[in-house]
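pasting for the record
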Amino acid sequence: MRINTIPPTWLTPPFVRKRQRIVGTLLVKPVSSLSLTQLYYIGWAMNSRGAAELVIALIALQFALIPVEIFSVLVAMAMITTLTFPFVLAHGIKKNPTMMDEKTPST
């Protein structure tokens, strides 16, 4: 299998997972004392777990469940999602320096 024969659908799951994690963290707002901004950045932080993705991809490659081209795409996506978060967080902190300050629960 050549890289140019890989369907573009192989590139969409990481972006779908990214949105799902961010939306998932926002859904806990009713039971959390964190602000929406804090939950949004927690969702981004959940995307920077490239090590787990790499371990699963390596096991799949070793058992011949995926070809080496797919493994390469998974490694690239794990690196991209892991390396993107520090820039997103730095931008958010510049925009709102107190966003991660503890919020007092309303009692």
